[in-house]
Each structure stands twice: as structure tokens, then as C-alpha cells.
Amino acid sequence: MKKDNIGEIILSEKEIAARIDQLAAQINQDFKDKEVILVSILKSSLYFMTDLSRKLDFPVKLDFLELNHYADKDNSGIIRVTRDLEFSIAGKEVLIIENIIRTGLTHSYLLKNLGARSPKNISICTLLHINEDKLLDLPVEYTGFEIEDNFVVGYGLDYQERYRNLPYIAKYEENPQP
């Protein structure tokens, strides 16, 4: 794979794996003896959910939700669900698995959308959290890493559908220096 736009590696494969172990330990404690529906936000969180779910000690169902952003004339953007959940979450414990939270707008929409389906509880677990651009303060119960506001790729995160399969997370450089 051509990696000429890959900049500094900010999280190594080893660092990600170690933090997932820590998150899983905390989640195992918090959800002990409960059945939980893990909701992966496609496509970016697929690797994270796979690695995290294998370390959970309680019964889980895996489900997927895909959201697309459409920019309108004033560039405010519209969020649409393009792939909905397979399972009903009514009366269930739901743990949203996300790779990155930046402004909070998408996740605010997501909490309203899923909340209207009457779950018992909704929690959010994100691998990456950027607080600099936060427009809304969301209840994020589990955070892997706080990072600076850089465009990053790898471990599920992409640039034009490329670089998702990198085992680490790195800065993406639009115009790399020679």
C-alpha cells in the first residue's frame, strides 16, 4: 500500500491494544451480568468493535448502524441513517462503539435517534476523543485516547476509503513534505 501521505504515527498498534485491554476491563466491570447490544458505527469503528468485543466477558449482540452526512447549500449538513439496526433495542443495554468523536453533533443526533427507540440505557465508548472542536458536551463513558485535532487515518479511519487497514493511527498529510 502506498503510504506517502502518512505522517507521524500518533498511536501504535501496541498502544491501541493495551488501551483496549484497559477499556474492556472497565466495561466488563460495569456491565457484569448484563446482556448488551454493541452498536458499531460503520465503517470506521469496525476494527475497534471487533477487538474490544473479543475481550468482553458478558453476553453481547453485535449490531451496526451506518450514517452519512450530506452537505446542503448552507453547508450545515444533514445526517441520514443509511443502514439501520437489525435488532430492537427497546428495554436493552446499548453500548455505542465509535472510533472518533470530534464536534459531538453526529453523536447528539445518534443519541436522540436511538433514545427514541426506548432502550434501557445508552452508553458511548470511543477510541479517540477530540475536545478542541467540541460543539456539544456528550456523555462519553469510555474514552480510549484524547488526541489533538488532526486528520488521522488507520485502524478503521480513512481518507477516501483508503488507509482503514493500517494497524496504527497516524496523521494524514494532504501535501507531504519531500
UniProtKB/TrEMBL annotation:
UniProt GO BP: GMP salvage; guanine salvage; hypoxanthine metabolic process; IMP salvage; purine ribonucleoside salvage
Sorted UniProt keywords: Cytoplasm, Glycosyltransferase, Magnesium, Metal-binding, Nucleotide-binding, Purine salvage, Transferase
Domain annotation Phosphoribosyltransferase: ranges: 10-160
GO cellular component assignments: cytosol
Co-factor(s): Mg(2+)
Compartments reported by the entry: Cytoplasm
EC number: 2.4.2.8
Listed GO MF terms: hypoxanthine phosphoribosyltransferase activity; magnesium ion binding; nucleotide binding
Transcription regulation is among the record's keywords: no
Swiss-Prot/TrEMBL catalytic activity: GMP + diphosphate = guanine + 5-phospho-alpha-D-ribose 1-diphosphate; IMP + diphosphate = hypoxanthine + 5-phospho-alpha-D-ribose 1-diphosphate
SUPFAM superfamilies the record matches: PRTase-like (SSF53271)
Residues forming coiled coils: none
Enzyme class: transferase
Listed pathway(s): Purine metabolism; IMP biosynthesis via salvage pathway; IMP from hypoxanthine: step 1/1; Purine metabolism; GMP biosynthesis via salvage pathway; GMP from guanine: step 1/1
Region forming the signal peptide: none
Similarity comment text for this entry: Belongs to the purine/pyrimidine phosphoribosyltransferase family.
Role played: Purine salvage pathway enzyme that catalyzes the transfer of the ribosyl-5-phosphate group from 5-phospho-alpha-D-ribose 1-diphosphate (PRPP) to the N9 position of the 6-oxopurines hypoxanthine and guanine to form the corresponding ribonucleotides IMP (inosine 5'-monophosphate) and GMP (guanosine 5'-monophosphate), with the release of PPi.
Protein name: Hypoxanthine phosphoribosyltransferase
Organism whose genome encodes this protein: Halanaerobium saccharolyticum
